[in-house]
UniProtKB/TrEMBL annotation:
Keywords: Membrane, Transmembrane, Transmembrane helix
Keyword Transmembrane: yes
InterPro entries: TAXIMIN_1/2
Protein name: Uncharacterized protein
Native source species: Buddleja alternifolia
Length: 80
């Protein structure tokens, strides 16, 4: 059951359900981010002087975290 008590409502099932399709798209982007991250780490190991590879690896890490960010945003937007 939902444990919504007053102002600190932590359970928002409607936001979770509305966010599922967007989280699925974010999950696909996350998989792309994993591939970019692996390639970026490999290139940075081969040539550590490439600063642009570090930026690409940071972008890949944000893509990997995208599904969690999307679900958190959606659940925060819908009130209890």
């Amino acid at each position: 059951m939902c444990c919504c008590g007053g102002d600190d409502c932590q359970c928002r099932p409607l936001g979770f359900l509305l966010g599922l399709p967007f989280a699925f798209v974010a999950l696909i982007l996350s998989l792309v981010g994993i591939v970019i991250w692996i390639v970026g780490i490999t290139v940075s190991c081969l040539c550590p002087c490439c600063l642009c590879v570090t930026v690409i690896v940071e972008l890949a890490l944000s893509l990997i975290k995208a599904p969690f960010s999307v679900m958190k945003w959606f659940t925060e937007q819908i009130p209890c």
